[in-house]
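Summary for the funding panel

The consortium committed to producing paired sequence-structure records for every protein in the target list. Below we show the first two records in order, beginning with the earlier of the two.
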Amino acid sequence: MASTYLNKTFSTTGNRQKFTLSMWFKRGIVPVGNQSGTERMLFNAYQDSSNQDQIWLQSNGTINYVRNNANAVTPSQVLRDPAAWYHVVFAGDTTQGSNADRLKVYINGTQAPIGQQDTITQGSNFGAINNAQLSTFGRRNGSNDWYFDGSMANIEMVDGQQYGPEYFGSTDTATGIWKPGGSSAISDYGTNGYRLKMDTTSPGADTSGKGNTFTPSGTPTLLQGSPSNVYANLNPLDNKFSTDAVFSNGNTYVAAGGAGNGRFYSTLGMVSGKYYCEIKNVSGSGGTPLFAVTGTSNYALSGSGSPLSSQLYDYALYNGNVYNNDATVGGTWGTPSDGNIIGIAINLDNEQGGLNKLYFSINGVWQNGADPSNLTSVTGVVGITKPENMTGNGVGAYFFACGDDNSFAERRFATNFGEGFFQTTAAGTEADDNGQGLFAYDVPAGFYALNTKNLEAYG
């Protein structure tokens, strides 16, 4: 999270001509176009401003390696997906005869196409990698800025070897997706090598056997998600109307000003299964906060009328009412206040009169007398169109959503799709029936956090 980082000052010089750095990350702030102010540092080995190695995300969405203030290599691939964990490997060996082989980059198991590659003199040293200097993950040293605001995992440095991605990841034979866990073993990480542990008790601890533990600065927010199990978050790229919304905390929190109605959607959609999320109505002024599932991201929430209920597949706990297509569905509903946590449970497996089921809670109390875990009950149920029956603007999947009904409203929402936090505050200790996710309130029996493992199992 922003303003936290891992750092270590090495006391011994290792091999300064050969290294392999492997890491997984899920980005936070996502640039739209060539948006300034979105530069984020992943790694910085630093002696001084003229002797350093920097790996950072640029404002155009590419990743860049800078050695001693020269752009050593910049892959042309754009990394903007806010839902994705990316695996990057930088493998250097300046003794190689060809300049193209002296610094290779792999993204998700494949050697990346290069947009720019400057000459690295054969036999030269890298800037500060494996030197007796400071190394940092998540911040630019010297100026002490460009804090990384996303998530990191599976960080490994091999001192003295240039390895390919097969040492750190492999292709899942069932899905074809690149995943953690290499098919080749690393026998020795070298003098300044490390394999960093990222858990709740000892973030930055080295498990390579070399004792090169990094120290966290600040308190890292240790989330439930990982490269092997991706949790949903809000999608900053799917933000049609709000022009001043600011996303943070790994895109789980959004602060929307008065420039356009704010409508914000989960990155993962649902076509079958039963899922649960919590959205905290943090604060705001003007308009009315809205909480919903919507049958299409982006276009289901129109530019006029009640934003989360003006088209076919929008349902919202809205000012004490629930709406569908601008019509009240009826029932007894509380009115959310600032600080309240709204629970949303969607059942896309069981049906009532040809419709699927939707439920809302306020601070753990299910509204309209509902009990989502009672799959045969019709009490308190909002009937929603089954995904396969969607027409018009529907895309055949539902998304969790939140927003406001007024272009002058200023609203702040903290979402928890199971990662376990509202901003940097722990949400609670309630997990789903699979033991996944952490929530403030009890997850209804048979409902699950919105992550890729649950989608694969139940979606």
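The next record, for a separate protein in the list, is shown here:
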Amino acid sequence: MPYPPRLLHEGERVLLDLRPHPIRLVFPTTVGVVGLGGVIAGMVAWTNAPTWFGYALLAVVVVTAAYVGTKVIVWRSTNFVLTSSRVVYRKGVLHRIGREIPIDRVQDVTYHQRILERIVGAGSLVIESAGDRGAEPLPDIRHPEQVQSLINQTIDDSRGPQAAEPPDDSVPGQIERLADLHRRGVLTDTEFEQKKAELLERM
């Protein structure tokens, strides 16, 4: 279900409202197909089966349908929402869980993709925020690279226009700029540590 407008703050805009990638439904769907195929095969192979066998097949159908249906409902009730002022992650049906991270408290956004996830456009995000909760892993996000970029852009927009200042060419100033490039994903961990070490050697 979409993020309710009544939960938005004054002037807040929804920039992104996503359900998990459908890759999360691959295993439940496979279980459903295998279960249904097994029931059909059993009915065809044993046409003169006793009554109890029919009840057993019916039980398999009911359990399989309940399992697949539950997974679909949980998938539909899980949302990743990015607004102009916060990141929201909600999941659960009967037992609802929600996490909100103010956009100005987001310190780092990292995404991870395995080979299959890269092919289908899925992945996981890890959002690090200031405070006791630390990193928040968010699995099965659609197009995580684009989502990471949008979150970083939203962070920049939330800071508002800033007066142009001459760059700080001191070593701490240069390290700070390197850290910003590292946070944006322009520099890898290795490149950041190497350039940082070179600057520290000049002190």
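Regarding this second record: The chain is about 45% helix and 20% strand. Residues 22-76 form one domain.
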